[in-house]
Amino acid sequence: MVKSVLSSSVNYLCTFVIFSSRTHFCTNVSRTTSDIVVSTSKGDVRLVKEDAAPVYYKPKGEGQSGFELVPWKNGEMIANYVLFEASMEKAKVPWNDYKRMTKDERTIYMKHLKAIEERKLTYKDPFTGYVVFTVSHHLHRGNCCGNGCRHCPYGLENAPENVKKSRKWNGAFYV
């Protein structure tokens, strides 16, 4: 077990490895104007704030989302991991919304969710037999196509007013 303790009174950061009663690593942390100097048993390490780089996911280019399709079995293209994660986030439905759905709406929601989990771009509607685009497909496209799609993640922003008025959001998709 590893335990780290920072003592504010003496500015020591000690990390203990608890399998014996010995301290295996102890550092003295001091500050200069904008630098942090960490003294270790191997010597001082100077951390310059101005040279620091952020540590987070950075899209591949300005204005690009990182959403891509990757090859799968038999030449099928599926969502990459970044697109999969975004799709799963968009597909979340609060319990109160799920509870208000009809039995048929729940069936459609579960069919859509299964398709997203498999990183698919389409699924077959269980009632009509039509092929329906998943939210993954729409996110990959990057904007609303204006057709009033069931799983549009863009709020039907490019759809004509008559289409917007004819569709109602049930908490999971447009009906």
Automatic annotation (TrEMBL):
<protein>
    <submittedName>
        <fullName>Chromosome 4 open reading frame 29</fullName>
    </submittedName>
</protein>
<dbReference type="InterPro" id="IPR040807">
    <property type="entry name" value="DUF5522"/>
</dbReference>
<dbReference type="Pfam" id="PF17653">
    <property type="entry name" value="DUF5522"/>
</dbReference>
